[in-house]
Fold each of these.
Amino acid sequence: MRWSIVLVAVLTLVIGCVDQTPDSPWRELPLPQPGARILAFAPTPGGVLALGSIPAADVRAPAAWSTTDGTHWTTVPVHPETPYGARAELISAGTGDRTVVLGRAFGGAHSNPRMSIWSGDAHGLTEHEQAFEMFGGPHAIAVSAAAALGGADLLVGDWDGPTGRYGAAYWASADGANWQRHADDPALSSAPGEQTGAAAVGTGPRGFAIAGETLRDSIIRPLEWTSPDGGRWQRLELPGANALASGIGCATTCTVFGQSVGADPHVLCWPTPDTGALPGPAARNVDVQQVVPTPSRMLALIALDHRVSLISVSSNCTDWQQFSLPAPADAARMTTLPAGLLVAGTDAQHTRLWLRTR
């Protein structure tokens, strides 16, 4: 299995800074296109989609590429349908019967994020124009992440709901084009005296899972929501207080990552909804950016004091291993290929692409 190859590679990593000497397991690869920014990966039946943007005059333009090895790339046609779609960066994706993609541009009087929705496959992605207030307008808070499973497409984020209380929300579609917002679901939305928020979404054998939190009685509590179909949700409050759940990866079960909140922040890992969080590395600032499961371990990209590290932890959230990327990055995304682990590290100026081969 591809995961097994990556697992062997991760277990042989050497802790500390990694250079690109002949003995280094890291190999820098050329970008698929000059000036490309890679902000998301999505698996496809024949390989992987890389999603992001390229320079276009004084703005960015949406772009996508496909690869089987991280070295040879095919440009995927993208078809924007709106002015903001034409200047969007593609930031999140999920793959089911089709690939559903979330794009983001900034504009308007207040330079607010303007979301765009795309779907397709490795042969092309098309934007689907939406009513402005489906994802924007006076009640918009955030649209954070995309996922897909079978014929169900899902977006998660936060919305100022019909009760006037800010809270977690989701958007669902059966075709990638026509979407319905759910800002009043009793499991996700804020009840009186609380404020919920959704940070990340994953898929596994049991359906969809969302990681997030609730602020109640001045205490932040981590939450996980689960659904078999993206329409019926169950809320699970994870053990612990003053903690956020901000990343999730699902294999046979879902593992949640997050961070403690307070004077001594740590990365946290919940192996099951009933198990207390186990602590990992400490930092003044913790940002869980991506979680990817393997058969026996979880891989996570986590920014610690604004520098991304690769974290490997056993499936029961023990045996923490922390590894540096070959160069500093503000944000990073990873995916697996037959040759190893493909990592895109991005800062404000550019993306660098690395393959870990052993």
Amino acid sequence: MQKKEYFPHHITLVLSETDLSTKKGYKSLKEFIDLLREMDMSVISIYVDIIDTDIELKEEVSQILISQFESMVSKLDFKPKLTIYTINGDTYLESDSDDLHLIFSPGFGGKKEILYAMRSVLKKVEDGSIGIDDIDEDAIESELLIREEPDIIIRTHDKNLSDFLIWQSVYSELYFTDVSWNSIRDIDVLRIIRDYQKRQRRFGK
């Protein structure tokens, strides 16, 4: 491990709903959060891909995941700053704390987030708050739900990207694990951090 300044500030974890279909999945998530908190991580955002295509079923699965996540958070030994979004991008829960910030988003991806942001910007144009020429990156970013840009995105046991934080993650590092989520260990997480520290981030340059 290198010095603390080479540690990521914000880690995004992308899971599938099957990763959290057992108690072991949430046990692994709790251990993941505890370990990163020991490293003084500032933000952990967690996205869960929901496979079902039926809208009502997706909403039901999303609510179950939220309830299970809340139960896991209640077992943490600290009180995190907490933000939970519904599958429609509404804020389900928000609580403040000076500790680690946990963001949980089951099923609400980046395409919808950008769509909602653009609608908000266009409403401002419509009511005369801003002009067309005022629409720039800052105007769009100001309407995004999640402002924090992830330093690294971890995708568990999969080679496909999700669309979570697609605006914010344009310069993020990507890491695809070779192990399934239920089998992940602290040593695997430490290897991810070490791999990140070895990379030279260019931020699009």
Amino acid sequence: MLSDPLLLPFLLIDFLGIVGIVVWLLQGRKRPTERLVVQILFFAGMTAVLGFSGILPHRVSDTDPKGVVAPLATLARVLWWTHLAWATIGFVRIYIVLDRRPREARLIQDLIVAAVYLGVTLSIMGFVFGAPIGTLVATSGVVAIIFGLALQNTLGDVFSGIAITLGKPFVIGDWIQLADGTEGRVVENDWRSTHLLTGAHNVVVLPNSVLAKVALTNLSRPDETHQIALTVRIAAAHTPQRVEEVMLAALKESVRIVQEPPPIVVLKAIDAVAIETELQFRVTSPANRPPARNEVIDLVHRHCEANGVRLAMPPQSYLLPLPATGEDAAGATVKTRSAGAL
């Protein structure tokens, strides 16, 4: 057995495979490019030895070595398939990093990695150990149907997460608002759910299947700035031009709002009591809306007092009596006197 011509090639392949695993583990995950290069080199060396020796790792033959060389041959084939899987997975991970894909792409990345491991496992069982692949695939199909029926909701979340990742309606760090009013910053997106950090500093966990069915607004696109509209009612005794000047002066003094594009004042309506204005301005982020609104309200109040501009009462707070005619006034006097006599 020791004179078998295939003994040395199998020993060399086993040596390269084991050393490659040790080097792969020692390099760690912080150096993915170097890790991939080393992995490809070891895999190429193992493939070269197989090729020069006339050994086919993807074919089981009756002429394969027996005795002491047999376990070495089996180990060599298993190591070759394992290194093939690792080299393929390393290439996939490096491609996604070099292509500057977002972090949410790890869902697709994990899916590809799972497919590679499954394919290599079936290849090892079929090409190395001679197991009937057709029977295994058929059995796994039945098992998959059973698990699919038992895990409908979980699978729905998984495939919805993949659809969201492919559609890219948002990325990690975006501020989104749902149709029911829930809004927050996306802090995590995994296989099952998406996590939002709300303005109240709470984390809302949304199943991907639910998130895929609701309408959402991405407040971070095309940029993070967010517009606010604030309605202010000024007494109609002032001229509209004067009102616009005072409101613009208040907006320009604010340090919490965006000055480019500049804020604007819209005169929406006028009646005998009030001039209704709408202050439109932007903030750097949806999270800055409360402090910016508070500052603008304070500045509007200060500028109105400094310029003698009076705020108008809200429509529901005043009652205007109808003008009384002479007969109505006389009747009211008679009724008042009668009431006094009584």
